[in-house]
Amino acid sequence: MNFKKLIYFFFQLNLVVLYAQDFVHPIYQNHIIADGENFEYITNDHLYKLNPKTKSLDSISIEITQKIGTFKLIKNSEYFLVNSLGGELLHLNENKTERIDHSFSHKNQLKSSLFTFENTIYRFGGYGFFDSRNFFTYFSNKTNEWEALETKSKVFPPGLFDNKFFIYNNNFYVFGGYSIDINNRSKRNSNDELWKFSLDDKKWKLVTKNSIFNDLNFSNFDFLYNDSFYFLKNGELLSLDIINLNLKNYGKLNYLDKGNIIYPTIVFDNTLFTIGNSPNSELSRKNIFELNLKEINVVSSTKLGSYTIGSIGYIVLTISVISLLYFLIRKFLSKPKNIRLIKENMIYGFKKIELSELEKSFLNLFLNNNELENIELVNLIGSEIDASQKSRIKNSTIESLNLKISLITNYKFQIKKYSSSTDRRYYSYKLLKSF
């Protein structure tokens, strides 16, 4: 992209506020990222690159083809906008956004953890349909759809949303946030655990537990610096030493009152840069603030113990093993449950969920056939619609039906897509039981 350079010179106001001359751009907190030594953000018609060190602001004109109020800006080697309500994904291609996914706004991963790793876009957790998720999805460039990430783990964190997270040494760390109470779906529980997921081995590990992690939310302000993760709690700056599990408290810093603490942070040359409102001005006017991290002092330090099983833990483990054996025996002796279709409802065990007319037609075919050709599903859609629109309706119906099947069966059944072994242009679908 060819940026048209706009140079803004700022004047020193004091030792903390670096720039006194402010700049005016409507910066929405979900439309700005920190990338290396630059802040990058979009407005309705421009993409900006702001370098706080060189005091320069570059921009290019872009065309956004739809409303992006619920979208979040993300970048790997290119720019994308991801809908926080669901799977919609826009790609900024040749200065214009284009939609590249085949999904819809399912609203089942609200407040999920969105990140990129090795040029792939991932989401972890999220809230929707009276539950919180504890799995990853990723956007597949092969299918142009969001897929569930296969793992090899034997332990898992609770379903979480609005949590803190960061990537360090190819590991995804998550702590804080909330889960849904299984007995009261309108109640949320604070999470006091720190979990680590290896993006190489695809395994989870519980690192530690501590009450300090309770009532912590996601924040754009959080940042990594010198093997530690920095975040705010009750106005105090804290850092978590990832290697030694030391938690340091730097107390309340007057500097942090000058910013909104809703924008990302950049750290280089031991200096923190962030964006905040200009003093005594309307909210649209922004300043860049800086803080020398070498000059802040530690107020207190706490060693967090690694998670191990003590004597009480062994008792809990024994009870868990007995409960597991009881569950397995009961499951073995019980009659396996199957999906049924009764009137407008899909039934599984004692659970039911209402389906649309087209979802009912699709499910009826799946229940009566081992395998369905793509054309059999397409033919269920009205004949007055053109082929490309039929394909989109078919894909969205499969996706919504699959989501309902997964929810009602607790992911025991899913619709799988298979390409023809002789011609990959042709494919079929099967409703299969997951093992």
Structure description:
The protein is mainly beta and 435 residues long. The protein folds into two domains: 4-303, Kelch-type beta propeller (Neuraminidase), CATH 2.120.10; 338-433, Aspartate Aminotransferase, domain 1, CATH 3.90.1150. The chain is 14% helix and 39% strand. The protein has four helices and 36 strands. The protein has helices spanning 311-333, 357-368, 374-378, 387-409, and strands at residues 4-7, 23-24, 32-35, 38-42, 46-51, 56-61, 71-75, 79-83, 89-93, 96-99, 113-117, 120-124, 127-128, 131-132, 136-140, 145-148, 164-168, 171-175, 178-180, 188-190, 193-198, 204-209, 223-225, 228-233, 236-241, 246-252, 265-268, 271-277, 285-292, 300-303, 339-342, 345-348, 351-354, 372-373, 413-419, 427-433. The strands form ten sheets. A five-stranded antiparallel beta sheet has the order 1-6-5-4-3, with no helix packed on it. Strand 11 (113-117) and strand 12 form a beta hairpin. Helix 2 (357-368) crosses helix 4 (387-409). The longest helix is centred in the last third of the chain and has 23 residues, at 311-333. The relative contact order is 0.08. The model is unreliable at 4-21 (pLDDT under 50).
